[in-house]
Fold:
Amino acid sequence: MGQKKYIGVFDSGFGGLDILRGIIKTLPQYDYIYLGDTARTPYGTRSPEIVYKFTKEAVDFLFAKNCTLVLLACNTASSDALRKIQKKDIPRLYPDKKILGVLIPAAEEAVLRTKNKRVGVIATDGTVKSGAFVRELKKLDPQIRVFQKGCPLLVPLVEAGEQNTEAARLILQNYLRPLIAKNIDTLILGCTHYGILKRAVQNIVGSRVHVVSEAETVPQKLKAYLAKHDEREKQIGKNGKIHFYTTDLSPKFQRLGSRFFGKPIHAQKITLAARQ
Structure:
């Protein structure tokens, strides 16, 4: 039978732990490895070339740790690196492996939900500039109109633990006001950190707007993928194991990571390097 494999989940920092929490709630039986590149976060302000380089190093690490499938639980990595790794690196280096992103599941959910074909996206500046959400949404439905807003203050706000403050509410209102004015009926939270803000966002945009959170959509898409790809699903260990790795093991990682994951986590520090 050979050694059982893992599902790898990668994020530049902490937001992916919210995605992993949702995945484990839906698919608790599998074995997982989580990697957060906290030493080099955030990715949202970096160039596409650097995002690709860092993401490739993370993917190399996870495949070396016996992951058969890696999920990029980072919208910036999904925007700037996923397609390049899929086309250039997977066929050459890992023909028996698979890499997925969080962006397409969110786009698919938004297309299903929108009635007036006016979809808003809040994300990091890097994700907005990449045009990835616009590309994927219009690929699914060319008639959809997409309105994006870069929100550079939200990640530091969440990481400071200030998401429930009056200041956070005012910042969110400022970011969301232009999108509400565009008469959107669906809003994508296009950064994994933003899932923790969903309730506050919903309060501002109102019940008429459906808010798409990747922490809710990605687990269902992963479940459907594994059901469809039986040969890969059978390779994955089913002991409910979770291993956590980080590039900067600080008290902040333990504190914030536990908040995003919903319970205490114990991580091991590693160093990422380029594969030759």
Observations:
- Strands lie at 6-11, 32-36, 67-72, 98-101, 118-123, 145-150, 186-189, 210-213, 242-246, 267-269.
- The radius of gyration is 18 Å.
